Structures are given as structure tokens and as C-alpha cells.
């Protein structure tokens, strides 16, 4: 009974929250003049042609943009998960001189508005000779292997600090080295934090427009967010229908990624399992 | 930096009474070993651009001119901000209003839905994903169009209101209401803190609940004495990050106002103003100064949050 | 703000430390390699636009490669959004493309900071041939006496109206040359007859304001100053406040919807007003977005105030090490008849008059034909071009929008808003 009530509440909330997305879906099936005149959800004239039109609208098929975005996003996921986990372990569990200072520096790097860093970062990447070339994504990926996204380091620190220290000590008594504690205690117990990091890394990279715009200059190398904006030229032609169609499609991979990964958040962690 | 006093809990943990089985010296070495990737990233990718922007904030840097044209202007940019730029103060007002209203509401929505979805209901995985969907739109073109369309005079929102006999204004295009739609948009995209709450809830050891049930604790008591304390580091994280995020709120303002902060500057968030100064007015030196003032102000706020955290955040490593 | 030598020195030292290995570029003295028919050259070229423009431009560039097999292109194109952010970032990194597209919003920003190459010497030696250009058109690319960009398309202001709705209500159509007062009367009558506001309120529209100023022998800019006073702005705002009071224009929030520059947001296609203030060459795209038939005339008042505006330009990066080839490419794109056929009217009317004449014969799209005819008719009476907008022009534009919208929303009187606008505009162009 209680669970039915819960389900009803959930469904009602979803109805409200998802309305704009239904609108996007509906708009992806409208013709362009109708898009401007009909503000409702349901299209008057069903125009599924926006999908094939959008897919092959440009010289490069949209499939290629999806592939590019997937490569970049997955590499960022790996980079963030690995490097932030290492740094977080140091901050959360190890004692060393200067830890508090470094931690403050790390939080401090979250605070500077990113727009003043675009030009200096571009210059740094140019100096490192990472801009352009056959694989122009290095400036988008490499920083994530160096734990530069303090958000995730901080996130993991907070999660790790929730793990009872008795577990570390028990492991050490069992003869584990520091790395052993990391490998056998912290790593398995950090799964919720890792899953969260993976989800956000993927989605945020998938949606990131500005940095991808700056570093990728060749149409076949474009990523989904950059390609989506090619439909709308504010002064000239605008293909809103195909743009909506491709926007809907571009939600699918991230949605599926989320659906797959959130499963790992379903089961609670059972610490007793570790000791056995 | 002002933040050195921030992680007080860490200091405390460091001075904690526990005796380690292994010497602290070895751990110090291990600490820096584990920290190496981050330190390399800091030195090359994070710190240099930050320091460059700090230096540039004392110049008249305009992005386009050759670097040899750069002029040192001392504290002029900072002085101008506080004494000659009414738009700066306006942007501060808009931003504070936005952050103060949007942040708690967004966190509340995220925690509420996370608790709702934490219990096993059939199809809970799908529900979670659906609740996250709005956040997937990020700051895309599609979002810009849908939001502006829904909140214009003849948009869906007013259609809904008209059912109740209310004739709504042209929300996004009305200087009195545009910021309100911005706040609504921020709350609507509550997916990120929700997921973090969900992950945090999953970290609560199930045996604690089982033990509490054996002791005859009710749902509310279990929430108060088990869930909240164990969740507190995660709540703290969300509070700090969403506060920073709220003050930095750029995307929604950019999307709704078409990058202008209009109508009549009603959505001119601080970071949007900074972006306009840097990339439209080509006053990147001034924009850099704006950014560093932001860093100091929000940094101070973060320090305050960290120091209150001492009283209500419970860490598993210091119980 | 020219600092004392010592301050300059200090800043330069700081920059040098930060940017040590970045070679300082951009001195005109360095001689670029001459157009050599054997040495392979790759030129980078950057423009914004839709995919139709991309296809045409790529085809045109391929023609150049066909004639000069050693020259190839690294082409980058993207939407308008973010274009100038990226261009600025590339410029800051001394990595700007050899050739880039630019418009009159930003030409002075780039030219006055010496990002663009001065093309005057090429023009004099006829390596860049503008002899077939209308004089006022190429002159609209001259900033501080330097030819900073080559116009690649001409357009002029156009008042686009909804023929279908006006005809259905038995209303007369607007005509070129009607006075502003007559136009407001006409719009008010149209509102009554059709129940749709007769016109978008253009008080936030810099190009309408500009035409109106020119008709009173004022201008938007005069040398390095504003070409108008607070009284002018007040009168302009008052004109439209009167129109709003007579219901000739929509409500403030709808006006704001139409103040966006996007084609798809113009009230004439969203059906929220009967006329929109646009550029003549935008008629075909507007027409694609509505089932109603559209027409176009000049802005109200004396049409002599209109001018041949360069819709956009191509400029050469001053730091490029392939300047001569880059100029040769631009010359080819502007003057080759075959290229002219390929590019068509995508960027506006072709700048070369011979090519323009031959291209116009081949146009089939009805609304494209209309827009060309109107532009050609107006072109006969075009006055001299105004000077290219000053640095800070895009700020001035957004300040005008802000001021006009504050009047429309009832947040300020015309006089107060005018005062605020003048202050902001003066500071925008004086930085």
C-alpha cells in the first residue's frame, strides 16, 4: 500500500518534470513553420523526416559525431575515475605534511570562474603542442588523467571519509600495506563514488560545448554539442526540426549510460562482506 | 591562500589520538605518491592559467592585441569595479538573490527525491534515470528554445495558469519575472545533487538499519540517528558545491537571455557579466579582476561553510 | 590607455615570462613567401554559417586548388554562436587562421588592434582587385585609413511585411518612402483591422535607429565620437512610445522576443506582428519559416539614408606567414566568374558588379528575386556609406536594447533611458 502511494507520488512528479522533454520530443516531429506557430506538445502534422534529415544533414554523418563524443567521454571517465581516486585516497586517508594546505588549494581551484581561464589554458596547451593534429581531443582528455577536476576529488574524499577507519586498521593488522588498504578496502567501498564520478564525467563531457568548440576545428572531428549548433545560424538558415531530432537522439546514449550505471547504486554496500 | 584554515576537520583528524600501526613517515611518502598525478596536473594545467589570470587582472589585457601592447594598470581594474561600475553591483545583487533562493530549493528537491527513490519500488532504476533526464539537457540549444517557449506569454506555463483563471506575464521576457524562471530552471535540473545523495544513501551500511529495527526504532528515528549522520559528509559536499555552483550560475542565464543578461539586466549573473566583459567588450584584464574578486568572496563563504561543518558533519574516520 | 614606457615595459616583461616560447607574431615587416606555384601551401580559413554556406564555400575553394594545385585549405566552419569567442582565443594564442570571416560588429575591434592585415598595398598593386566593387561597398571595409576587410556580400535594411494577412483584411501594403509618422498611422490601422500588431517596435534596433538618424543628418558615429545626442535618443524612444500607446506595436515582452536577431524569432514569421525590421537579403530565409506570403520595402523615411552595407568580410590575419597567397585567394573568391556562380547570393549580393549581374539572371527562388530587385532599386539612390562602426559597437547595440526595453517595460521614461544609454555608449566606444 505504502509502495503504491510512493509510486503515485513519483509518477505525478515525473509528469511535471518531464513535460519540457515531451515538448522537445514533440517538436522534433513538427515541420519548421509549425514549430514557430504551435507552442503545444503534440505536432499537428507528424514530420518524422526531421530524423533522417538531421542525421545526414551535414557532409559528415551524425553517427561520426556520436562516435567522437563517445570516445572523448569514455576516456574522460577513465581518467577521472583513476586519477581522482588516487588523489582522494591521499587526502582522505593518508597523513602527510602539507595535506591541509593542498586540500585548500584543491578546493580553491573550484572557485575561479572558468571564462578567464579559457585563453590562458589555450596558450598552455599550445605551448605543450597539444592543439590540433590528427587527434585534437588531447586538451579535452589529458587534464582528466591528472585529476584537475577538483569536483570529483572532493566528492571522493567526502565518500571515503564516510568509510569507518576501523576497516583500514583491521586490514593493516592483517598485514596490508598502504596500497593494500587502498586496493582491498577503499577501492571496493568507493564504488558509489566511482559510479557517480563515471556518470557525471560522461554526461558533462558529452554536453560540454565551449571547450570542444575551441579545440576541435575539423568537421569530421566535431563532437555532438558542437555539431548540434550547426543547425542554427542565427543570421541565416535555421533547421530547428532536425536540430530537435538530433537533440533527442543525443540524449539517448547519455540516458542509457546513466541507466546502466545507476544499477550499481541500487544495492547497498555491505561492509561485513569485506571481512569474510 | 585564505583557505588554509578551511579543512578544519582534516586538521583534527590529523591530530587525532589514534596510533597508527605504521610510521607516519612512510605514510607521508605514500601520500605524495598518491597525490603525484594531481600535483602534476596542478602545476601544469591548473595553476599556470590561474596565475596568468591573476597577473592579467592587473593589466589592460584585451585578448586581441599583441602581447607587447600589454599595459600594467596596477589596481585600476579593482578600483573601477568597486567605485565606478554600477553594473558590477547590480550583477552582485542578481547573483546573490539567485544563489540564496535557488541553492536551498535545489538541494531540498534533490534530497527529497533521493529519499523517495531510495526505497525499492518496482522500476526504481528507470525512475531515477527519468528524474535525471532534465539535467541531461545541460545548456543545449534545445533547452534554450524549450524554456523560452514555455515561459513566454503564450507558452505552456501560461496555458496551465489560464486553467485557474490566471493571465500570466511573459515570464522570460519580463524584467520582473525573468530571474524567477532562471531559478526554476536551476531547481528543475536537480539531477546531479540527487545522484550524489543517492550514492551517499547507498553507503549507509544495511546492518545498521537492521540493528536499529531490532531495537524497535521507527522510520523517522532511523533517518535522524542513522541516515543523517552518515549522509552528512555527502550533504556537506552538496551544500558546498551547489553554493559555489549557484554563485557561478552561468549556463541557465546565458541560455535564457541569449547571452545578454536581459531583459534590462534582470538575469545578469556575475559570471555572465564577466564573460561579456571578457569576450564581447574585450576587457579581459577587467574580467580577470572580476574573477579573482569572485574567488575571494566565494572562497570566504566556503571557509565559513567548512567551519560550520565541524559542528554537524560526522566522518566515519573520527567517530 | 597608453601607459608610460615603464609600465609598458613591466607588463611586457611579465608577458614575456608567461609566454616565453610563443613567437611574437604580427609584424608587417616580415616578407611573406611570394605566390609560388610549386611550393605546397596550406591555408587555414574560418567562417560561420549554415551547412549550405559551407558546401558553397568548399566548392569555391576547390576551384582555387584546381588552378593552384600546391595550395590546399584547412577549413573550419561553425555556427555563429561561439564564433568570435573562438576567433579571439585563437588570436590570443597567435594561432588565428590565415583567412577569417568577420562582420561590421567586430571589424574595428580586430582592425584597430592590428589583428587584420592592411590590404591597401595589395589593392594599389591590383593584387586585390576591387575595381568592379561599388566604391561605397569596399570603403565600408576601411578602418583608420586601412583596408581591413574585403566585403563579401552587400545588403541593406529591409522592412519585411506579411502580405497575406494585410490583403485578407483589405489593408494597404507599406511602401518605400512613407514617413515615420505615416508608417505608425499605417501600423495602428493595420492592428485594428487584423487584430495583429501592425509592426515590431524597432526602438531597440540599432539599424533602424541609425537610418532614422541619417535622415536627420545625424549619424551613429562621427569620427571617434557618437554622432547623436540624448535629445535624439529621447525623440526616437518617444516616437515608439507613441506607437505603443496607439497599439501599433505588441506588448513589451513580445517586442523583446522579436529583438533577438535570429530569423526564426522575427515576429513576422512567428505571427506576432505584421512587420519586422531586418536585412533585405534575409527575406528568403524568413519566407521559408512561414506559410504566409511576405514582402519587403525600405525602412520608413527617405530611402537615400540606406546604404550598401557589407554583410560580412573576409580578412587576412596579420600574423600569417602566407599573406600573399591568402590575399590571392580572397581576390579569386571575389572576382572569379566561376566562383561567383558557385557562391551565389549566400553572403548577400556579390560585391563584384559584373558577377552580380550574371548571378542575378540565374536566380529562381521567388523571394530571393524579390529581395534582389528591392536591393537593386534601392541601390540606385544609396547615399554614401557611413564609417565602419567604432570599437565597442556590439556593446553599444546591447546597451540600446537595454535602454529601449527599460522604456517598453515601463522601468524608465524615454528621457531617463536616453540619458543612461548615452552614458553607456560613450564609455563603450572610449575604452
UniProtKB/TrEMBL annotation, chain A:
Keywords: Cell membrane, Membrane, Transmembrane, Transmembrane helix, Transport. Its main location: membrane. The chain crosses the membrane at residues 7-26, 65-91, 103-125, 137-157, 189-206, 240-261. Pfam families: BPD_transp_1. It is found in: Cell membrane. CDD domains: TM_PBP2. The keyword Acetylation does not apply. It is a multi-pass membrane protein. Residues 66-261 form the ABC transmembrane type-1 domain. PANTHER family: ABC TRANSPORTER PERMEASE PROTEIN MG189-RELATED-RELATED (PTHR43744), ABC TRANSPORTER PERMEASE PROTEIN YESQ-RELATED (PTHR43744:SF6). Belongs to the binding-protein-dependent transport system permease family. This is Carbohydrate ABC transporter permease. It comes from Dactylosporangium maewongense.
Automatic annotation (TrEMBL), chain B:
Keywords: Cell membrane, Membrane, Transmembrane, Transmembrane helix, Transport. It is a multi-pass membrane protein. The keyword Transmembrane applies. It is found in: Cell membrane. Its main location: membrane. SUPFAM superfamilies: MetI-like (SSF161098). Residues 92-305 form the ABC transmembrane type-1 domain. InterPro entries: ABC_transporter_permease (IPR051393), MetI-like (IPR000515), MetI-like_sf (IPR035906). The chain crosses the membrane at residues 32-58, 88-117, 129-150, 177-201, 222-241, 253-276, 288-313. It comes from the Bacteria. Belongs to the binding-protein-dependent transport system permease family. This is Sugar ABC transporter permease. It comes from Dactylosporangium maewongense.
Amino acid at each position: 500500500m505504502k509502495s503504491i502511494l510512493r509510486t503515485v507520488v513519483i509518477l505525478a512528479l515525473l509528469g511535471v518534470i518531464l513535460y519540457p522533454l515531451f515538448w522537445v520530443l514533440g517538436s522534433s516531429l513538427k515541420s519548421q513553420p509549425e514549430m514557430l506557430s504551435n507552442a503545444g506538445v503534440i505536432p499537428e502534422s507528424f514530420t518524422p523526416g526531421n530524423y533522417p534529415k538531421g542525421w545526414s544533414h551535414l557532409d559528415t554523418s551524425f553517427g561520426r559525431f556520436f562516435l567522437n563524443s563517445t570516445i572523448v567521454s569514455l576516456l574522460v571517465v577513465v581518467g577521472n575515475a583513476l586519477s581522482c581516486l588516487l588523489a582522494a585516497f591521499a587526502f582522505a586517508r593518508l597523513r602527510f605534511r602539507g595535506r591541509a594546505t593542498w586540500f585548500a588549494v584543491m578546493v580553491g581551484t573550484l572557485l575561479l570562474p572558468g571564462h578567464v581561464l579559457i585563453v590562458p589554458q589555450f596558450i598552455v596547451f599550445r605551448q605543450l603542442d597539444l592543439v590540433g593534429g590528427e587527434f585534437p581531443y588531447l586538451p579535452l582528455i589529458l587534464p582528466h588523467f591528472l585529476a584537475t577536476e577538483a569536483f570529483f576529488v572532493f566528492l571522493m574524499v567526502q565518500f571515503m571519509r564516510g568509510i569507518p577507519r576501523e576497516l583500514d586498521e583491521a586490514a593493516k593488522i592483517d598485514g596490508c600495506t598502504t596500497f593494500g588498504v587502498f586496493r582491498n578496502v577503499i577501492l571496493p567501498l568507493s564504488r558509489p563514488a566511482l559510479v557517480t564520478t563515471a556518470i557525471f564525467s560522461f554526461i558533462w563531457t558529452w554536453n560540454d560545448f565551449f571547450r570542444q568548440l575551441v579545440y576541435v576545428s575539423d568537421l569530421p572531428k566535431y563532437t555532438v554539442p558542437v555539431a548540434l549548433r550547426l543547425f542554427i545560424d542565427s543570421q541565416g538558415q535555421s533547421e530547428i526540426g532536425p536540430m530537435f531530432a538530433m537533440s533527442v537522439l543525443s540524449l539517448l546514449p547519455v540516458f542509457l549510460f546513466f541507466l546502466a550505471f545507476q544499477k550499481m547504486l541500487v544495492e547497498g554496500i555491505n561492509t561485513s562482506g569485506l571481512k569474510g | 591562500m585564505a583557505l588554509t584554515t578551511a579543512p578544519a576537520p582534516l586538521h583534527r583528524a590529523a591530530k587525532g589520538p589514534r596510533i597508527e600501526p605504521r610510521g607516519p613517515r612512510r605514510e607521508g611518502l605514500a601520500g605524495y605518491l598518491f597525490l603525484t598525478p594531481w600535483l602534476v596536473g596542478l602545476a601544469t594545467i591548473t595553476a599556470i592559467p590561474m596565475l596568468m589570470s591573476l597577473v592579467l587582472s592587473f593589466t589592460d589585457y584585451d585578448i586581441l592585441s599583441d602581447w607587447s601592447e600589454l599595459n600594467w594598470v596596477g589596481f585600476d581594474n579593482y578600483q573601477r569595479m568597486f567605485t565606478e561600475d554600477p553594473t558590477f553591483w547590480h550583477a552582485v545583487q542578481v547573483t546573490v538573490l539567485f544563489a540564496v533562493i535557488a541553492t536551498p530549493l535545489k538541494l531540498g528537491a534533490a534530497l527529497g527525491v533521493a529519499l523517495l527513490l531510495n526505497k525499492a519500488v518496482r522500476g526504481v532504476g528507470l525512475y531515477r534515470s527519468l528524474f535525471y533526464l532534465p539535467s541531461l539537457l545541460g545548456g543545449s540549444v534545445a533547452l534554450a528554445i524549450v524554456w523560452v517557449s514555455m515561459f513566454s506569454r503564450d507558452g505552456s506555463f501560461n496555458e496551465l495558469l489560464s486553467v485557474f483563471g490566471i493571465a500570466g506575464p511573459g515570464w522570460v521576457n519580463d524584467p520582473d519575472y525573468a530571474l524567477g524562471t532562471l531559478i526554476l530552471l536551476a531547481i528543475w535540473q536537480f539531477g546531479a545533487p540527487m545522484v550524489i545523495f543517492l550514492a551517499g544513501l547507498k553507503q549507509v551500511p544495511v546492518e545498521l538499519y537492521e540493528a536499529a529495527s531490532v531495537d524497535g526504532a521507527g522510520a523517522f528515528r532511523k533517518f535522524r540517528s542513522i541516515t543523517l549522520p552518515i549522509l552528512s559528509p555527502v550533504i556537506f559536499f552538496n551544500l558546498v558545491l551547489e553554493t559555489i555552483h549557484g554563485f557561478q550560475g552561468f549556463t541557465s542565464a546565458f541560455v535564457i537571455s541569449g547571452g545578454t543578461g536581459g531583459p534590462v539586466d534582470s538575469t545578469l549573473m556575475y559570471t555572465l557579466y564577466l564573460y561579456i566583459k571578457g569576450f564581447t567588450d574585450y576587457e579581459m584584464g577587467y574580467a580577470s579582476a572580476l574573477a579573482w574578486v569572485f574567488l575571494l568572496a566565494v572562497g570566504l563563504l566556503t571557509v565559513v561553510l567548512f567551519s560550520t561543518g565541524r559542528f554537524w558533519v560526522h566522518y566515519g574516520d573520527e567517530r | 590607455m597608453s601607459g608610460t614606457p615603464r609600465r609598458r615595459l613591466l607588463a611586457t616583461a611579465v608577458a614575456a615570462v608567461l609566454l616565453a616560447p610563443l613567437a611574437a607574431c604580427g609584424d608587417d615587416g616580415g616578407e611573406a613567401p611570394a605566390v609560388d606555384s610549386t611550393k605546397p601551401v596550406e591555408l587555414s580559413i574560418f567562417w560561420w554559417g549554415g551547412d549550405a554556406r559551407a558546401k558553397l564555400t568548399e566548392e569555391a575553394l576547390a576551384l582555387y586548388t584546381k588552378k593552384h594545385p600546391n595550395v590546399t585549405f584547412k577549413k573550419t566552419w561553425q555556427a555563429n554562436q561561439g564564433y568570435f569567442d573562438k576567433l579571439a582565443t585563437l588570436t590570443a594564442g597567435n594561432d588565428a587562421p590565415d583567412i577569417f570571416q568577420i562582420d561590421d560588429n567586430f571589424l574595428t575591434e580586430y582592425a584597430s588592434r592590428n589583428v587584420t592585415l592592411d590590404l591597401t598595398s595589395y589593392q594599389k598593386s591590383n593584387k586585390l582587385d576591387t575595381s568592379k566593387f561599388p566604391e561605397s561597398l569596399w570603403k565600408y571595409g576601411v578602418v583608420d585609413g586601412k583596408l581591413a576587410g574585403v566585403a563579401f556580400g552587400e545588403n541593406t535594411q529591409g522592412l519585411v511585411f506579411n502580405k497575406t494577412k494585410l490583403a485578407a483584411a483589405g489593408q494597404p501594403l507599406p511602401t518605400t518612402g512613407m514617413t515615420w509618422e505615416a508608417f505608425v498611422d499605417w501600423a495602428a490601422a493595420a492592428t485594428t483591422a487584423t487584430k495583429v500588431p501592425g509592426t515590431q517596435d524597432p526602438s531597440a534596433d540599432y539599424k533602424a535607429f541609425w537610418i532614422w538618424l541619417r535622415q536627420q543628418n545625424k549619424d551613429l558615429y562621427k569620427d571617434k565620437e557618437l554622432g547623436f545626442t540624448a535629445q535624439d535618443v529621447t525623440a526616437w524612444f518617444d516616437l515608439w512610445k507613441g506607437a505603443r500607446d496607439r497599439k501599433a506595436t505588441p506588448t513589451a515582452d513580445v517586442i523583446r522576443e522579436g529583438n533577438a536577431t535570429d530569423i526564426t524569432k522575427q515576429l513576422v514569421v512567428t505571427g506576432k506582428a505584421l512587420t519586422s525590421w531586418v536585412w533585405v537579403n534575409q527575406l528568403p530565409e524568413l519566407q521559408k519559416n512561414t506559410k504566409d506570403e511576405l514582402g519587403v520595402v525600405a525602412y520608413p523615411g527617405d530611402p537615400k539614408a540606406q546604404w550598401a552595407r557589407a554583410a560580412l568580410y573576409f580578412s587576412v590575419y596579420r600574423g600569417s606567414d602566407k599573406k600573399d597567397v591568402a590575399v590571392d585567394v580572397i581576390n579569386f573568391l571575389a572576382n572569379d566568374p566561376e566562383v561567383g556562380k558557385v557562391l551565389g547570393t549566400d553572403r548577400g549580393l556579390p560585391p563584384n558588379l559584373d558577377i552580380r549581374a550574371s548571378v542575378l539572371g540565374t536566380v529562381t527562388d521567388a523571394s530571393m528575386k524579390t529581395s534582389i530587385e528591392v536591393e537593386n532599386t534601392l541601390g540606385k539612390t544609396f547615399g554614401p556609406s557611413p564609417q565602419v562602426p567604432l570599437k565597442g559597437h556590439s556593446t553599444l547595440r546591447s546597451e540600446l536594447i537595454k535602454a529601449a526595453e527599460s522604456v517598453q517595460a515601463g522601468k524608465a521614461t524615454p528621457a531617463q533611458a536616453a540619458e543612461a544609454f548615452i552614458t553607456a555608449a560613450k564609455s563603450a566606444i572610449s575604452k
